[in-house]
From TrEMBL:
It holds the Pfam family CBM_1. This is Lactonase, 7-bladed beta-propeller-domain-containing protein. One of its GO terms (molecular function) is cellulose binding. GO terms for cellular component: extracellular region. Transmembrane segments: none annotated. InterPro entries: CBD, CBD_sf, Cycloisomerase_2, Haem_d1_sf, Lactonase_7-beta_prop, WD40/YVTN_repeat-like_dom_sf. PROSITE patterns: CBM1_1 (PS00562), CBM1_2 (PS51164). Residues 20-56 form the CBM1 domain. It comes from the Eukaryota. GO terms for biological process: carbohydrate metabolic process. Residues 1-22 form the signal peptide. SMART domains: fCBD. Belongs to the cycloisomerase 2 family. The lineage of its organism: Eukaryota, Fungi, Dikarya, Basidiomycota, Agaricomycotina. It comes from Crucibulum laeve.
Amino acid sequence: MAKIFYSLGFLGLSALSVRGQAALYGQCGGIGWSGSTACVSGSACTKLNDYYSQCLPGSASSSAPATTPTSTGTASTPSGTSSAFTILAGGYDTFVATYSFNPNTKSLTLISKSPTGMDPSWITSHPTKKNILYAVNEVASGQLQSFDIDSKGSLSSAIDTISSGGDSPAFAVALSTGQVAIMNYNSGNGRIIPTSSTPEQFSTSASVITFPRLTSGVSHPHMAVEHGSEVLVPDLGGDMIWRLVQDGSPGNFKIQGSIPQPQGSGPRHIAIYNERLYTLHELASTLTVQTIPQAPNGTASIIASASILPPNPPAGAMFAAGEILIPAPTTKFPTPYIYVSNRNTGVQDPRGDSIAIFEHVNQGTSSEGLKLVNQVFTGLDQVRGMEFGPADKNGDQYLIASGVAGSAGVIVLQRTEGGKNMQIIAKNLDIPTRTSFVWL
């Protein structure tokens, strides 16, 4: 996890033009706002909620979405929803927790705790065999472990354990190739580890990938995303997204190129949707969108950048962006909204940290941009991990989340208003903090 955060000075700075007018998609009003309330030509200041107004194309009357206070919205359980979901949760402890979420009774129940190695902070399932789980051990001598999952959601003893090749792996993901990528935050390296006779058995052949230490002098790889034949790795310390390709046999990868990010922004996590690369920047607390440059070293400018910070934070708040999710659109949720989490490491807001909801608008036009739709406050302290349920089980209307600090436990939110809003429908306080989730 990153230890260095930018101050609140980022709030709203990118939204103002040199002429004192708020830029297109910039903030122009809301409770506590002291900046410009005038928008650049061709846009109008439109109220989104009591705390945030934004410069949107055209007139306010034609482009304003309905005002959606964060505490409202009607949630219901549609027919076809499974009677209960089983959800695994990792954290900074020596176990993976198993929860049962029942949408009909709106209850979240702790079922079991399965022993693991130390600090299984990030867990990920096999892409096709959902009864197999991989977990990091985020410690100085990092490890990757594999487990079987029984019918009740409990884990077997660790079937295999292998070194991550470095210090404090904060992320792992199973790839479609049968390999598992694991990235070491503190030591600036990682491995992409093949499995052998079964998906639970690791091959020892994987080499260690060491990322360059650029002008900042540090490398903090924080994620890996498979995209075609590449694996993209955002480097929070190097302000870079590295482009990896397999170099010969499985387990051997090389850096073939890179996608530079704004200096000092700290790219933490990324998502790819509809030919666009979305990057969540931890240190700058911004969300950016750009095209994916041609491999290996093509260039693409950032199309839009937006602050994810909640409005009117308490004095002494310090923010660091956490997670980004873009659930695929469905009939019930036709718009692919972007959900990003804030983490306040300073003076806490009584409402807890927020999840900001954005819409990517006008793709392919001169007015392409990111529009803030809502800020949903969770009551949680530093939302590092959150995950939507499976769409094939009608679970994508639910989001499970927890904080990495505090004692607010685990919550389930339900999407409302087509995904523009969410409301908390279930909570469990048995374990104070969790950091990652897998829906079974």
